[in-house]
């Protein structure tokens, strides 16, 4: 695995530093002899994962990540209740600085005390924001978003299939990667969520730091294998979309780019699950908002109709019914001919689930109403498919549904039904006649060959 590690030397502490108490909750004078100090930025890239990128403090995305503080020198800060109101903003900043430190969670016995101090500090910050104990000063907004970025924006580990070499293998539930730093990470996400939804958060100020760069990095984290993290990210992104209207076009475009990358490049993205139901819902919402889109949507479904995947056909038929429920008669007439040619093919499908789902369309009152108004066009298209099922479909459920649909058409318009029946019988008679001629021709050829 390719790794790029940028390292920098430690800064030599000055005399003024040595005699002052740091905001991090420990004395730098005690730290001087241990030879430890907050480390510079560390960027680790992996060739197969889209790296989140180096933190950018100017964009409000993340603060410089810090290493573990010297053991035994991190001290807990007083709670907000124990200090005067005028000092709470400074205490808030000090707690943010403590939470910028990162810890190694692969070793559960390492820095146990310091991990607990950070965890408790995060709990206090969440409670402070949630209860609205005090309005956050403008300069505190930036520091808090930097702290959040320092914790959540990181290079994701390689996926499990990259270690095994199995490209198409789906990760087993018991083998699913869970972020070891989740005890801290969850609280950071909770803090960010409470900050966004808080009525005390000034959107005009917050949008300076929750900017396009921050949103892009947040979207990159959807590739995390930990489902708990993805769930938090989904909720937070939804709240950002709702509160920061100025970011909405950018968020839609960024998500669109992720989909394009998924389709044409990676074919893998942990944040993209089975999305047909949600996508279908969105499409129906478009049609309900503008009924003229129904023809475009239906023709689009027909254009990309699955050929050999029966399960996808069932999904398409379900979506088709939902779209038809929102379709008006004028738009239905534009696409009904190609639509019911496809429905006729589905009715005769050898896969019983496809045939059954297509016949279920006649259980929908609105769809039946549209069909009834245009039966003179639709019945001639599907009559032959119905007759084939009645005569010879192997599945009894499909056979029963076909008989019911056939009876429904007969009751709608008996004259039209009889006319279609007559045309079908004439076509069958011509087909039998052509077959008899073909057989006779082959017989004459065989007789001529035997005599020769």
Automatic annotation (TrEMBL):
Organism: Trapa natans (Water chestnut)
GO molecular function, one term: protein phosphatase regulator activity
Function as written in the Swiss-Prot or TrEMBL entry: The B regulatory subunit might modulate substrate selectivity and catalytic activity, and also might direct the localization of the catalytic enzyme to a particular subcellular compartment.
GO biological process, one term: signal transduction
Family note: Belongs to the phosphatase 2A regulatory subunit.
Annotated InterPro entries: ARM-like (IPR011989), ARM-type_fold (IPR016024), PP2A_B56 (IPR002554)
Biased segments, Basic residues type: 1-13
Xref: Pfam families: B56
One term under GO cellular component: protein phosphatase type 2A complex
Name the UniProt record assigns to this protein: Serine/threonine protein phosphatase 2A regulatory subunit
């Amino acid at each position: 695995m390719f790794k790029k590690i940028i390292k920098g030397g430690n800064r030599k502490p000055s005399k003024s530093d040595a005699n002052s108490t740091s905001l991090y909750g420990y004395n730098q004078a005690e730290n001087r002899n241990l030879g430890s100090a907050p480390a510079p930025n560390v960027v680790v890239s992996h060739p197969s994962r889209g790296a989140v990128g180096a933190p950018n403090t100017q964009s409000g995305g993340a603060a410089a990540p810090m290493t573990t503080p010297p053991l035994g020198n991190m001290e807990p800060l007083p709670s907000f209740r124990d200090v005067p109101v005028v000092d709470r903003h400074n205490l808030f900043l000090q707690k943010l600085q403590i939470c910028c430190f990162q810890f190694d969670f692969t070793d559960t016995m390492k820095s146990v005390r310091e991990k607990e101090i950070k965890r408790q500090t995060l709990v206090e910050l969440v409670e402070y924001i949630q209860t609205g104990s005090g309005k956050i000063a403008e300069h505190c907004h930036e520091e808090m978003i930097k702290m959040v970025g320092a914790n959540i924006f990181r290079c994701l580990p390689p996926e499990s299939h990259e270690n095994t070499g199995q490209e198409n293998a789906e990760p087993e539930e018991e083998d699913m990667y869970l972020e070891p730093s989740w005890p801290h990470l969850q609280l950071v996400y909770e803090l960010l969520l409470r900050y966004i939804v808080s009525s005390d958060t000034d959107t005009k100020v917050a949008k300076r730091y929750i900017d396009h760069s921050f949103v892009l990095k947040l979207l990159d984290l959807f590739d995390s294998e930990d489902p708990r993290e993805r769930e938090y990210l989904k909720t937070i992104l939804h709240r950002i979309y709702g509160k920061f209207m100025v970011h909405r076009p950018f968020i839609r475009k960024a998500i669109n780019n992720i989909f394009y990358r998924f389709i044409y490049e990676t074919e893998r993205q942990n944040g993209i699950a089975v999305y047909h139901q949600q996508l279908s819902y969105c499409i129906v919402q478009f049609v309900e908002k503008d009924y003229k889109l129904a023809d475009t949507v239906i023709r689009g479904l027909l254009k990309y109709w699955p050929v050999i995947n029966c399960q996808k056909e069932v999904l398409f038929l379900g979506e088709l019914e939902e779209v038809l429920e929102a379709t008006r008669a004028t738009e239905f007439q534009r696409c009904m001919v190609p639509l019911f040619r496809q429905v006729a093919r589905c009715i005769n499908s050898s896969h019983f689930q496809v045939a059954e789902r297509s016949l279920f369309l006649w259980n929908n009152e609105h769809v039946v109403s549209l069909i009834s108004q245009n039966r003179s066009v639709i019945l001639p298209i599907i009559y032959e498919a119905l007759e084939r099922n009645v005569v010879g479909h192997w599945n009894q459920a499909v056979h029963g549904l076909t008989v019911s649909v056939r009876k429904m058409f007969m009751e709608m318009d008996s004259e039209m039904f009889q006319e279609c029946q007559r045309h079908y019988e004439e076509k069958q008679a011509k087909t039998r006649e052509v077959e008899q001629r073909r057989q006779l021709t082959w017989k004459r050829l065989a007789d001529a060959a035997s005599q020769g």
